[in-house]
Amino acid sequence: MALASLSSFLMRFMNTRxxxxxxxxxxxxxxxxxxxxxxxxxxxxxxxxxxxPMLLGVSVMKVMGLKPLLDTPxxxxxxxxxxxxxxxxxxxxxGREPGVAPMSPLACGRTLAWAKRHHPQHAxxxxxxxxxxxxxxxxxxxxxxxxxxxxxxxxxxxxxxTQALQDEEAAKLLREEVQHSINAGVFGSPTVVVDGELFWGxxxxxxxxxxxxxxxx
Amino acid sequence: MALASLSSFLMRFMNTRxxxxxxxxxxxxxxxxxxxxxxxxxxxxxxxxxxxPMLLGVSVMKVMGLKPLLDTPxxxxxxxxxxxxxxxxxxxxxGREPGVAPMSPLACGRTLAWAKRHHPQHAxxxxxxxxxxxxxxxxxxxxxxxxxxxxxxxxxxxxxxTQALQDEEAAKLLREEVQHSINAGVFGSPTVVVDGELFWGxxxxxxxxxxxxxxxx
Lengths: 217, 217
Prior knowledge:
2 copies of one chain form a homodimer. Chain A is an alpha+beta fold.
């Protein structure tokens, strides 16, 4: 086997083993839908997934200079219908209407960014608790106390989490995640990065699956 | 059978027989991709398709107040890659790069709007000729003479088409189509309307197929 072929083989092998990156905003309904599927999809192909909080308010409004999706003429009504249609198709119950009185996603984003650093084995479970509380149960999680009141995974205590959300570190870690998402070219929720390829939107899951099956095209 | 059930049955039956509406902008690569699939998909379920020219410059920029997709930070580079990735996956050759020196779509849009009125049996074929010339062959079709130089279907002559594009009627018919698209809530290319449901984006074709198969959910 020539060196170039060997190198290509190893690259492909390493690529097919590399983890996926999943970017989402807690207040994005499509991000919630993706969170319900991404780990099952990846693990079916022996892949792991790292979850990244991002903020549409930064990427869409500040970097791209666009209005929020649900406040945009034509696109707002379309999106509301599309979200409910997706939920019906996949049997997902929603405890709130998309775009109606969205909370600030800062506390949730900080919680995930902080948990990834200090409780990495529980970070994803904590993110799922927050997503379910917000989207399924309709709980507002804009305050640290609301998040601390959830069923916390592992040895994580409400007191530790409440303290963490008062410290500057959690805010700094989220800012780093958001900057990381923008550097990666991420602008929408959900975005999944597979082998360096960005796939934006819940409608891209079939293409993601195909990419994982075939190793790309 | 109770009257309500009968009525429901008839409505469903009528719905499943109603035609689809396909909205696209000639300079949208995703619109081109959709044009290559939509009639085959619909006819597999015994449905017809009416093609509608729309103008992203009106719906996106004027009505929604957004920048052109490919000029938007983050979204521009993503879209270029996504278009090429879709083309590779589906074996579609592109004779031009998306977003590079786009033509004005006015002449093409007017041609289709005019042909629907005066040569309805050839309108779709003419639209396909224009799409292929622009996307596959890289021909600029911003001038009436460029369009008149294409292989025209049926008895349509270059002289008749050139004259039509100089008349006010063609411009008026396109304005009506564009207003119709906005009234229908259409804001992106492609958009397919099935039984009153809007599906935006080439990534929605799987959902459209499912809708056609199941009669909706």
